[in-house]
Amino acid sequence: MSLAVWGGLLGISTTAGLALVVARIVALRRPRLEMRVLPYVRDLTSERRASVPVERSHVGAAVFGPLLRSAADLLERTVGRPASARRRLVRAGLDISVHDLRVQQVLWGLAGFGIAAAYGVLRTWTRPGDPLPLVLLCIGAFVLGVLLRDNRLSSQVRQREAAIVAEFPTVAELLALAVAAGEGPVAALDRVVRRSHGELSRDLRAVLARIRTGEPVADAFDRLAATTGVPAVARFAHGVAVAVERGTPLADVLHAQAADVREAGRRELIEQASRKEILMMVPVVFLVLPVTIVFAFWPGFVGLTLTY
What is this entry's stated membrane topology (predicted)? Predict the structure, then answer.
């Protein structure tokens, strides 16, 4: 055969192989029926959804999934405290289970382990020596990655609760206006949830969903008070529950709570300013003051130099 025939056969085989690879990738990326249906099954909680066996299309998940789950189970037995982790996941607004959190911690630890191992390999190429410190470094990097994921969860909790505190006065005022206009608590909650977007609105939307499924209004708000980590929202939920049970004026309660949260925000701002008073003096002392001194003394110094 000539070179042209060999080249044509090679091109045809390469094109056919690429076509097969592309077709397989498209087939793997197509969502399965379970993945399309499960998000619309509203009566399943996140834990039960996580327990439904859904076939993974990713090759890495199919190969390393059992190992990651085993490592997550080992980490769960080592770390413990699943109730605390579950509560922080709820406060952070993450729709994942504790087991998924442990898997993410293992992944973060493996990332730290890989970085430390790469550094150790490069160091042994340049400076061969005792491998024990490098092994300890890799283990420490793995532990550090696990702790960083836990710290990231705590940071997500703080950020979400800060957003809830910032949204609370506006939402409480809207609820108070709707109740004062003659609407009931459930109708006012529905109106505010449909017209607001934020972290607090997500929690109130969950409360409204539980009320619509038949749970009493007071019990739904008591559950919100038990699960939230924001004291203002807990007082708000308790106040609404008591107002609904005893028939007290709800609008006055909401106005008072919104005013209390605004006053607490002003006090916190003043406290932050007092704590950072020294830090606020840094630009004045190290930037403004030296420039002022230079502008004041530089002309006289130049004049003395020229006179001399």
Answer: Multi-pass membrane protein
pLDDT band at 253 (very low <50, low <70, confident <90, very high): confident
List the structure tokens of 150. Answer: 């836990």
Residue 275, CA atoms < 13 Å, CB-side half-sphere: 6
Report the chain's mean pLDDT, rounded to a whole number. 78
Interacting residues of 113 by C-beta distance below 8 A, sequence separation 6+: 138, 139, 141, 142, 145
- Give the pLDDT confidence of 207-249 residue by residue, as tens digits: 888 888 888 888 888 888 888 888 888 888 888 888 777 777 7
The residue type of 62 is A
What is the rounded (10 degree) CA torsion for 159, 161, 163, 166? -140
